[in-house]
Amino acid sequence: MITPALSVLSAVEGLKLVTPALDDYVLPIxxxxxxxLFAVQSRGTGAVSVFFGPITLVWxxxxxxAGVAHIGDDLAILSAFNPLNAIGFLWNAGLxxxxxxxAIFLTVTGAEALYADLxxxxxLPIQVAxxxxxxxxxxxxxxxxxxxxxxxxxxxxxxxxxMFPTWALLPMVIxxxxxxxxxxxxxxxxxxxxxxxxxxxxxLPRFEICxxxxxxxxQIYLPLVNTIxxxxxxxxxxxxxxxxALAPAYGVSIxxxxxxxxxxxxxxxxxxxxxxxLTAIAVxxxxxxxxxxxxxxxxxxxxxxxxxxxxxxxxxxxMMWTWRKGVSLxxxxxxxxxxxxxxxxxxxxxxxxxxxxxxxxxxxxLTATPDTTPAVLLHNIKHNHVLHQHNVIMTIKTARVPYxxxxxxxTITKLSDRFSLLELRFGxxxxxxxxxALARCRKQGFKFEIMSTSFYLGRRKLIADPQSGLPQxxxxxxxxxxxxxxxxxxxxxxxxxxxxxLGEQVII
Length: 508
Description:
Blueprint: H1 2-12, H2 15-18, H3 26-39, H4 45-71, H5 83-93, H6 95-103, H7 111-115, H8 118-121, H9 123-151, H10 169-200, E1 210-211, E2 220-221, H11 223-240, H12 243-271, H13 277-299, H14 307-335, H15 341-349, E3 357-366, H16 375-384, E4 386-399, E5 410-414, E6 419-427, H17 434-440, E7 453-463, H18 472-484, H19 488-491, E8 499-507
Parallel strand pairs: 3-4, 3-7, 4-6, 7-8
Antiparallel strand pairs: 1-2, 5-6
Helix pairs in contact: 1-3, 1-10, 1-11, 1-12, 3-11, 4-9, 4-10, 5-6, 6-13, 12-13, 12-14, 14-18
């Protein structure tokens, strides 16, 4: 939320240099740009990126050229490459130097907008773009800004736009706005990807996911998330009104994310790469220490808006914690009434006058616990007194890897002449299309005819009970999140005309 609000505001604020009369129109113009940006998300992130990608390349080339043109204003700026100057300044300035670190932190941010699209384009294109274009252009531009300020101290008010002649100010504002839109686009698409992964890993309820590309599974659109992001961005822009006021919130959010990323990197290199703990600490500790210094410097501005990302992060953590805790409690409650599947099979296959009526066709029952009898199967026998000729107990699991190969996608286990177990496995970046996966199961001998198959789903109506496990506020939050979830039929791409839903009430 913070990145799109800050980037668009900072770009449009260049209009004040074109003419001071436009100062009152900066916020309205920024709001219109944000509204248009979020409005086109449903058309697909690929179309937006293709349109603005070349503009962004021009933007970086222009920044590099502007920097090169001004480095000669004062060649003393080249001493910035000497880290002893920075160390000496911090050593002599004391607390003032610590505060300055927070003030200049925005100069080392921006990479997160590029790396937000890592899941869409892969590692190599991002690395090439960073080292061949983005990093050199930014370095040259900052050197040019520094030289300009050293030679013309009056340019300190807005050194970036003052690097350009007056006639070029308006074109640069337009170009900067276009570049910030694509940067905001990267953050938005990154948010979509992260939410989808959180859903597949069980940290959030299932939201509607629309795929906007036939070839790129990473190009997705989440209507509910898009609406929440839009509301949050507009609220931030209206609350703070300018990029200068919003900068402290941005600094806290980015430095906090950096510290968390380094902690995650420590776990990654130990678990995935097999590094010894001491080796991981030796490599990451210098980076971690530097990030903590920046985080501490930015935390001094918590009361100036830095509290915003803390509140947003706290809200998301509370929601994820509540969802995980509520789902776990719900499983515990339903498990008390579970019947082992093997015991159920023995009961229904025993011929007696109370045995259910045999009906032709295949019934697929979705469940998260394949060892126990699905509640919807029990309800079907209880209310309809029928049992299909072939019954498939299907469970869907999300692996902790982005993609699962087709050959590892499904496992079929025949339990008896009438019962089979089917396990479908998807990666957290995969499209969980059950209908498509079932069609491919035929290669392993699964007889699947859509017109003779019925999908049975259970629908629970949750009733809050503060004495049952969760505090009342968490009960209400969990139920609200559950009610916002998309119907499983749509989420798993089941044929709607072949789905049967049976409901029950559960006190939680």
